[in-house]
Amino acid sequence: MSGSVSERACVALDHMVVRAAKSTLVPSGADCQVTPIESVVSREKKVVMFTVSSYLFRALLFIHFDQDATTLAHFASLDGIGSEEMSEERFFDAVMERGNLCCGAFNRELAHFFPHIGMSTPCILDRGSLDHVSVLKPAFFRHYLADLGSGAALHLTLAVCAFAELDFAYEAGAVEEESAGEMEMF
């Protein structure tokens, strides 16, 4: 069974992804520009994948990354350490943790519209995995570019597989601000 995602729901999903990325991928109060883009020009080697699921849809959120010096320095600064202290394992942990915060913020916003919703744990995959997402026949598929302001940039991809007709409108003042640092029980 497949459904569709209305135009206003697409606008709402865009807004939610942008808001989640801005509130979690940079230090509090730092500037972060997140824009929808047609395709991913840069070909990062890895992605961290999350899923948010309900009875009506499954949303897959991918954060693309490489372990280059600029990205490593950005995640090291988010962890409050120097780049030289950032081992490969700690870097992957930092990417997954920030991604978890980002997807958690996205999940909380969706929960205002869908009462039965759950989120997966992070999974690091090779970027080539994204070439196979089309097999799932997502009703909504969008790429984003997050300019993190530190010289680093990340690409994000959202794929929403709808099991019913999804139609909801996001109103900027309707969803209250929430802290990105709260622990959630799953």
Please estimate the helix content: 25-40%
Estimate the strand proportion.
25-35%
Low-confidence runs: 177-181
Query: If you compute it from the alpha carbons, what radius of gyration comes out, rounded to the nearest whole angstrom?
Result: 16 Å
Categorize the overall geometry: globular
H/E element string? HEEEHHEEEE
Fold and architecture overview:
With 186 residues, the chain is α+β, with helices and mostly antiparallel strands. Helices cover 28% and strands 26% of the residues. It contains 3 helices and 7 strands. Strands 1, 2, 3, 4, 5, 6 and 7 form a 7-stranded antiparallel β-sheet that branches. The longest helix has 24 residues. About 3% of the residues have low confidence.
Please sum up the structure shown.
The chain is of the alpha+beta class. 28% of the residues lie in helices and 26% in strands. Strand 2 and strand 3 form a beta hairpin.
